[in-house]
Amino acid sequence: MVGPDTMTSAVLWDPANAHFRADPYPFYAALREQEPVYAVPNDGPIVLTRYDDVVRVLRGADLSRDIEANQRIDENNSVAVHRRDRRVGAKTILNLDPPDHTRLRRLVSKAFTPTAIDQLRHPIERMVDDVLDLAAEQGSMELIDELAFPIPFAVISELLGMPTERADELRSWSTALTLSLEPNATIEELDAAAASLQLLVPYLIEIIEDRRTNPSSDLLTALLAVEDHGDSLSYEELIAFVILLYVAGHETTVNLIGNGMLALLRHPDELARWRDDPSLDDVAVDELMRFDPPVQHTVRVPMVPLTFANAHGHDVIVEPGKLVFAVLGSANRDPNVFDQPNLLQIGRPNAQRHLGFSGGVHYCLGASLAKLEASVAISRLIRRFPHLELAGVPHWRDRITIRGVDHLPLDLH
To answer: Is there a smaller number of Cβ atoms within 10 Å at the N or the C end of the chain?
Structure first.
């Protein structure tokens, strides 16, 4: 089998490699040891895999998240040009730098408060219990389709006050949009994402206009009303943010629940430990997020030359405009920060240092919601069915940016 122990650093970061996509963590370990500041051949990105370097990138004021505006690209690279030119409308807070990012985050945070999240706990518990009641009758469950997707989707729909009857279409649109985030996305996949947006935006506009004339107590109404010292969201900003919430609000949580449940099934002692100790409910998800996060890397562009210490005692200078991949999944397995990082340890003392929700000003706005959903879903599942086990072979999405299982059959007897 071809693996990182038989490969040179020239192919240790290779999205086209099936073994890499199936299990990137051995490749990350090899990169951290051999070439933690790795320049992908043919003028590719700089890949950073050590925890300290990733934190520096996430928190650095000298790096931009506005990739389209600041990345230096090869005009002969048709995919890169297509990716740059296809973007339309307002940027989301994910792709803005201060002060624009600061302004938008301040506005939307007023409507996305911890109190609003806390109020969702009991509705989430009821949703999960309804799913588990049906699963108990069946004696089995396909975790992704029956629990991991429906619960986060229903929650974000309820939070925003969105209808749920078009769940299948929205899941398809979301899949196309997230696939466009992959570093090896094709022009066809970028076009499919653009086509999904062309269907999603009119759908959202119709709902927004209805909510404008028929306000409710939901987050969408609050976003329409939000204002701070005379400032408010523009129409394009509102649509961009609702799309972000609608997609990111369920997509990553689906994978957090799926990845986390699979990790527990592969570490039965840790599953039993959590099942038998409810005091771990508030901390267990941090370790699941560290161990196998849904978002494996994020990108930045330096605005000034930056120097990073590579292996073998030499420095690498990263020039302005160069795309930088900060590999969150690798940082979470850095042995200089996490003891025995390849072991799942529920209740790990420093698990909260994980970077699965990014960091700095772009720390995930919905982190508390994702943790609540995953904690409720998994804890209630493993306590309701103490003898559950895998009923087949889990299937992974063939991706490296948004990592997750898309099929996880369970026997609940």
So the answer is: N
DSSP secondary structure code for residue 63 in this structure: E
State how far the Cα of 233 lies from the Cα of 217, in Å rounded to an integer: 18
Residue at 276: amino acid letter: D
Which residue reads 């991991």 in tokens? 148
Non-local (6+) Cβ contacts of 88 within 8 A are 197
DSSP for 9-53 reads: GGGSS-TT-HHHHH--HHHHHHHHHH-SEEE-TTT--EEE-SHHH
DSSP, collapsed to helix, strand or coil, labels residue 398 as coil
Instruction: Kindly report, residue by residue over 32-90, the tens digit of the pLDDT.
Output: 999 999 999 888 899 999 999 999 999 999 999 988 888 876 656 655 665 666 664 45
CATH 3.40.1170.60 fits 4-411, yes or no: no
CA-to-CA distance for 168 and 166, rounded, in angstroms?
Answer: 6
**Do 153 and 171 meet the contact criterion of CB atoms below 8 Å apart?**
yes
Q: Which amino acid, 75?
A: E
Find out whether 400 and 179 touch, Cβ atoms under 8 Å: no
Closest Cα partner for 317 from 326, 308, 325, 327? 308
Task: Quickly list H helices, 266-391.
Answer: 268-276, 284-291, 328-331, 367-384
Residue that has been written with the tokens 């999405």 in this structure: 397
